[in-house]
Amino acid sequence: MTFHYMPGFGNDFETESLAGALPQGQNSPQKCNYGLYAEQLSGSPFTAPRGTNERSWLYRIRPSVRHTRRFEETAVSHWKTAPNIVPVALPMAQYRWNPTPLPNERTNFIAGIRTMTTAGDVHTQVGMATHVYVFNDDMVDDYFFNADAEMLVVPQLGAVRIRTEMGVIEVEPLEICVLPRGMIFKVEQLDHAAGGARGYVCENYGAKFTLPNRGPIGANCLANPRDFRTPVAGYEDKETPCRLTIKWCGRFFTTEIGHSPLDVVAWHGNYAPYKYDLRTFSPVGAILFDHPDPSIFTVLTAPSGEEGTANIDFVIFPPRWMVAEHTFRPPWYHRNIMSEFMGLIHGRYDAKEEGFVPGGMSLHNMMLPHGPDFMGFEKASNAELKPTRLDDTMAFMFETRFPQMLTEYAAGLDTIQEDYIECWDGLERKFDGTPGIK
What we know:
Jelly Rolls; 2 domains; nine-stranded antiparallel beta sheet; six-stranded antiparallel beta sheet
């Protein structure tokens, strides 16, 4: 089955699955066509400025007050929320992990979330969490929504189908998907023969993701709005026992209902899920000398109250040409006020020759030094500086202004690379103070 999408970022969309299901000229008629209920889903305070005001009107088979009954608290064992107080003393360090193995037992997307780091405080709606997901079982009669955060989903192994209230999104490795706070959804595998799917999730407690300002870059390049895709309306009319799980202030609750909650027949507005193909990102860079700041690779940013200091930046390192003269071309050694959680979707990252593999992860917290490993430094320092296409790569970074706290799960993984710090061991003194020596 082919699913359709509408182009644009932050647009005011309108879409209907049945002709005439969407009211014209008003939002809340006395009686909606087809016996539907009108309902507003707000993603911002009602009085937010027009440029940041987000809401959509949904026309659904049942109002969502009928999609919840009495709640019971439940456990999602590996999903943690900030503030995350770890009961064991963790060493200060730079961290790197090998890929998380796929589960052997039947595990759906929600049960397959494993939290690696948390930052900030969900109760004051600042900060974020990073997760890896591994699952091999579809959510058939199980549904979920996150009242704490919007979710940025980054597949690494295996394509997934995400059925949401507002339509269906299929997303594969080298694509991403953003699910708004409060959006009901369920996740399925697209290729059941593959044995499972793996990827990363950034949970954003703060202001929603938006496109970064381009500044002197001007009107074009980076992530262009026309390349984002929002699904058309597509409803699920199913009268069978279903379970809805809600994440609220870091706790999980379930409610049993007798029908699917994905029953929106038509909708209009600007609060909606969307996908983006990372291969359409148009990078800019140095065409003479020096390595620009990695901020030029920002796809999405979640702003904080301080201009230029993000709650989260989502940054990628895509294929691109390297042409800078008399320049060390990989990222330089640095210490940074931001905390960087990094993953590799595909290929190889140019600053690391060994150890950082697709599905792997690393964490460099605020002000901890990091940069190219010894072999990467030697290779880049002695390479012929001709135009070179950096290909077969797609790395990303979830970067935040807050320190990222390791979870007990992440600290105890047997996939952690205990020898990661040794990748810099060969960087010995080269200094020679003799005048004229370079």
